[in-house]
Amino acid sequence: DNNNGTKLSPPPVENYISPPPYAADGLQALNWYMTEARLDGVCRVRACRDLEQAHNPCIGVLLYYDNGRAETLGQIRWDQEVSQDINVPVRLRRGKLDGNPYVADIQGMAAAGCGPTEGEPGDEWLELPRTGTMVWWFCISRDIISVYGHCTHCR
Question: Helical H runs in the chain?
Fold first, then answer.
């Protein structure tokens, strides 16, 4: 699922070597960074929030796997807030600030309940699938999340 709700097939290689096609303000020449990780076998996560920004966005997530492995998506900064463990299933809330997309929140589905949650206008929740690959693009003013190759009936 990309930022406009369209289901995506596994990305071609060129999707990994150039920034996402987000140009609401015409700024595509930003310094983009990309991280990616498989979602298969993730058992818990920890979210990192940037406390230096007024809206306290989530800037990254640590993924912990059943086999003991760990991966990072986005940025993990130990000088910022890193949450306690959040067990899967997990969802994240995408929002926009001044037209720029960012990750507003990451929470466990069990703690949140599975019903709709009130958020800021324009925010949307994305349940992270248990399979596929998640890509987290980021630059100084925005974060873009995409999930590829997931199986919608696999749990």
Answer: 109-112
